[in-house]
Amino acid sequence: MQYKISALIFLKDQAGRFLMLKRAKAPNDGLWSPIGGKLEMPLGESPFECAIREAREETGIELENKDLHLFCMAAEKAYEGKGHWLMFLFECSKPLEALPAAIDEGEFAFYNRAEIDSLPIPETDRQGLWDIYDKYHDRFVALKVDCQPGKPLNFEIEGLVPARKSTHAKPQND
């Protein structure tokens, strides 16, 4: 099976609620998830370029690299038994001002973190993605997930970078 490479973007509104997309296409048709999509590999698109493009295409928001924090690289083995996914997860610091209009990929809604746990979401999201977000969105984690059908999902941390330091800290003199 070949790898597909994607970016997921965790966008929030000014109240801190997460933007979720009820997907109208595979994978995850009918399930709620953060926005995102596949890298344009023939163009040599980077994960940041993909996140910026997907956010613009799906929500209309204009982002720059500085608006995004890459907090996770997740390698999913045998997702739905159909392929491997290398996913780059980004947290966006620029809030959305309004709920985007529905698109051909699905419809949008804002949910607070507690509400997401009661939504129909992909099993990998329920068993690991949101836990990873909760624990590591302020740092960086490399993760592998064994998604082989007929086996329990297995999440393994391969690397962890400590939490980001405040950008408001005063420089120390040597």
Note down, in words, how this protein is organized.
The protein has 3 helices and 9 strands. It is globular, with a radius of gyration of 16 Å. It has 174 residues and is α+β, with helices and mostly antiparallel strands. The chain has a single domain (3-161), classed as Nucleoside Triphosphate Pyrophosphohydrolase, CATH 3.90.79. Helix content is 18%, strand content 36%. The model is unreliable at 168-174 (pLDDT under 50). It has a 6-stranded mixed sheet, sandwiched between helices.
Beta-strand share of residues: 35-45%
Helix percent band: 10-25%
Number of domains: 1
| Stretches with pLDDT under 50, minimum 5 residues | 168-174
Task: Note the main attributes of this structure.
single chain, about 170 residues, alpha+beta, Nucleoside Triphosphate Pyrophosphohydrolase, six-stranded mixed sheet, three-stranded antiparallel sheet, 3 helices, 9 strands, about 35% strand, globular, disordered C terminus
